Amino acid sequence: MKHETIETNAGWLIGLTLLVISIGGLVEIVPLYFIDSTIEEVKVENKETIHPYSPLQLRGRDIYQREGCYLCHSQMIRPFRDEALRYGHYSLAAESKFDHPFQWGSKRTGPDLARVGKKYSNEWHVQHLIAPRSVVKESIMPNYGFLMTPLSYKDIADRMRALKMVGVPYSESTEEYDANVKRFGEDIAKNLDILHAEENLLTQAASDNYDGNADDVTEMDALVAYLQLLGTMVDFSKFDEGHFAKFR
Amino acid sequence: MSSEKNKPTVQTTGHAWDGDLQEYNNPLPMWWLWTFYASAIFALVYWVLYPAWPIGDSYTKGMMNEITYTTSDGKTTTTHWNTRALFLKEMQEARESQKQYLEDINASTFEQIASDEGKSAFAYSSAKVLFADNCAACHQAGGNGVVGYYPNLLDDAWLWGGSYSKIQESITNGRNGSMPGFKTSLTTKQVSDVSDYVLSLSGNSVDASAAKRGKAVFTGQGGCVACHGADAKGQTFMGSANLTDKIWTIADVDGADTAEAKKAAVMNLINNGKTRQMPAWKERLSATEIKILTFYVKQLSASK
Predict the structure, then answer these.
(1) End-to-end CA separation in angstroms for chain A
(2) What is the pTM of this model?
(3) Are B275 and B169 in the same domain?
(4) What is residue B20's predicted lDDT score, i.e. its pLDDT?
């Protein structure tokens, strides 16, 4: 085929350009699906401890994305000593395997949040989100006081179905539920049930009461529920210190 | 533009569009070409040295030096070059360089650390970093806290006890402090009277008869004594505040200008209550790190 044929035919030009630029991506990405050690296996007592988000946490993650938190906060602790001392154990690939899309981020205007879960109290998070400078004087984070508005959760089942389509194991049938019980344990499996999503969301918001007001479910409840889960799904004390290095 | 410049002096691609539009086909600059060749050679060397090419469910491990590291539980492993092993090696080297100091800290009592210049210098400088990373978000960089939210660590008032062992316990397991709100169980008048009484305890001038009525509610119907004690000095086993020490951690009495504002702050607290939580740090920090922080926090307080 002559050079001129390609350059003067839009169809050929687009098709071949796409082919050439996709090679770089394909060569780097496709093998990762086949390499055993890409995603670490994290099992304690034969149950996977990394699980998809509960309905409330999922809405929190949606808000995290909506507000663009990832633009200033990464969720990726690299295996360096300085990061380990400040943030904790380096992030595992497995820890974001149910994230679509993952929230690794690429810039730290604020600190990394990969292991912020349970580091501070719920009250701290609420106060800090409403008025960051009332607790961290030098902070340049914007105020997120408007999160104290009612959370819209009527479409939660659809949101979970959408994620199910890309492989997140939310359950819609008894068989899928039973498979989740086997995989994650009953407590977690209950929260992954799409058929009871709304009910589970309300129950978690009422029992954990993240924003200090038990009467309503706010966006703050959802976001704090999500933040308090970050990085807490792997209990590293259950594994040898060198365990996860075997996956590289 | 002069017509001279439009004359092609180098080879063109050979096409002509619209009769006279042509495209130059200049050779690549040499510096660009050599950089390109160099990066190709770099890639070849990289592929040989480092983990690179996928092969089925595995990949080439590279000929780079193997890494041998020992984890803190004493297990030694040798593996192909990879960043996680490199990290564990880095942690091992740091641990070994600090080993003697950390062992000294572990083997010493708090009093011994305080009286030994070397040990306290080490504890103090490591603690400053730990405090900044973990504690300062609430207690502030200097430890002065935020009135209404987080206790001040610089004074001598300790809600949960100020001995080394109590501070260590607070950091290790966290604390949950909770005062219920009384707006449903007491009338506004009663809350007002109790507020006068509470303010009188720390030397604020109040209406004496109101304070007297407030004392009756404090010890009687309000049940305040159950937590704050008959002497209103609080009880450290449950984190109830000492109301007689002029130190206000939640109701911002010191920040209020007028007597009315002071009273409003106290009434607000009695009406609505307050729940505060200090997170547990035992899963995030090692026992030695907690010990170092305990020492530091104690040193921050006025009387040490």
Answers:
(1) 44
(2) 0.87
(3) yes
(4) 87
- Identify the domain containing residue B294 by its residue range: 137-300
Contacts of B283 in chain A (CB under 8 A): 118, 235, 237
What span, in angstroms and rounded, lies between the C-alpha atoms of A176 and A165? Answer: 14
Locus of tokens 């300085």: A82
Tell me the residue type at B215: K
- Matching residue, tokens 């803190």: B72
CB contact under 8 Å between B279 and A212, yes or no, is no
Q: What is the CATH number of the domain that holds B174?
A: 1.10.760.10
From chain A, pick out residues whose CB is under 8 angstroms from the CB of B134. Answer: 119
List Cβ neighbours of B225 (8 Å cut-off, separation of 6 or more).
B218, B219, B232
Structural domains in chain A, CATH included, are 3-34 (no CATH), 43-247 (1.10.760.10)
Question: Of B135, B157, B190, which residue sits at a domain end?
Answer: B135
- A118-168 pLDDT, tens digit per residue, is 999 999 999 999 999 999 989 999 999 999 999 999 999 999 999 999 999
Among left, alpha and beta (phi > 0; psi -120 to 50; other), residue B235 is beta
**B130, B138, B179: which to substitute to probe chain A, counting the most A Cβ within 10 Å?**
B138
Could you tell me the two tokens for A205? 């918001």
Asked if A242 and B90 come within 8 Å (Cβ–Cβ), the reply is no
Together in a domain, B128 and B143: no
